[in-house]
Amino acid sequence: MSDRPRIGITTGLEDGRKILDPRYPQAVESAGGLPIIAPLFESRGSAAAFASLLDALIITGGPGITRGLIGVLPADLAAVDARRDRSDELIYAAMADRPFLGICYGMQFANAMAGGAIYADAQAQTAAAVHSAEQGATGHEVMFDSGGRLSALLGSDRLTTNSHHIQAIATLGAGLRATAKSADGVIEGIESADGLILGVQFHPERMLDRALPLFEDLVERAAAVRSSR
């Protein structure tokens, strides 16, 4: 198999069928990594065996997260299928010692796994503006903490991003800090103190002209893991 760093990418589940936006593996390939699509796991053993093949993990966007939920999901946001939720838990736990990139749902999932809370509907529960393209949002500016990894990677203290979410982080999980926010205070990026976890609320795979460095960083961190084995 290729010596390129192996990046696991989780899949969604819709009407009982696995789904994956091809822009995720394309982004990993563009960054120099080898994308490996994860199945849906039902046991810790199978997740651990699959994790042994990987150097890093991406948990992709998805429907409504139910872990750490504050409030009730709006009618136009379906809850994540319990099978995907369980599978994500299994592979995330199996990859706890390796680099991670969480995208939209994936960022919220990592936060919830660390004990953080998630608003079911940020627009209804806070003073947040509309952040969902389905509700009319187009894009918005995200401001980065000058001392954070996101700012360093993207070479700026702000970035205009896409907007595809109804939920948002309410409280941060243990060991995580917010390093990006929108003007209305919604958390748009998180990082862990140990440098393993990076999460963004926007979709970098849909804006590689500006956000490819996030995938290049993951591949670089995965390469360091691979070389140490």
What is the topological layout?
Layout: E1 6-9, E2 12-14, E3 17-19, H1 23-30, E4 34-37, H2 44-51, E5 56-59, E6 69-70, H3 82-94, E7 100-103, H4 105-113, E8 117-119, H5 122-125, E9 139-144, H6 149-154, E10 158-162, E11 168-171, E12 176-182, E13 187-192, E14 197-200, H7 208-228
Parallel strand pairs: 1-4, 1-5, 5-7, 6-8, 7-14
Antiparallel strand pairs: 2-3, 8-11, 9-10, 9-12, 12-13, 13-14
Helix pairs in contact: 2-3
In short:
This protein is of the alpha/beta class.
Report on the structure:
The protein has helices at residues 23-30, 44-51, 82-94, 105-113, 122-125, 149-154, 208-228; strands at 6-9, 12-14, 17-19, 34-37, 56-59, 69-70, 100-103, 117-119, 139-144, 158-162, 168-171, 176-182, 187-192, 197-200. A hairpin with a 4-residue loop joins β13 (187-192) and β14. The longest helix is centred in the C-terminal third of the chain and has 21 residues, at 208-228. Strands 4-1-5-7-14-13-12-9-10 form a 9-stranded mixed β-sheet, sandwiched between helices. Strands 6-8-11 form a 3-stranded mixed β-sheet, with helices on one face. The protein is globular. It is of the alpha/beta class. The model has no long low-confidence stretch (mean pLDDT 92). The chain contains 7 helices and 14 strands. α2 packs across α3. The protein has a single domain (6-228), classed as Rossmann fold. 30% of the residues lie in helices and 26% in strands.
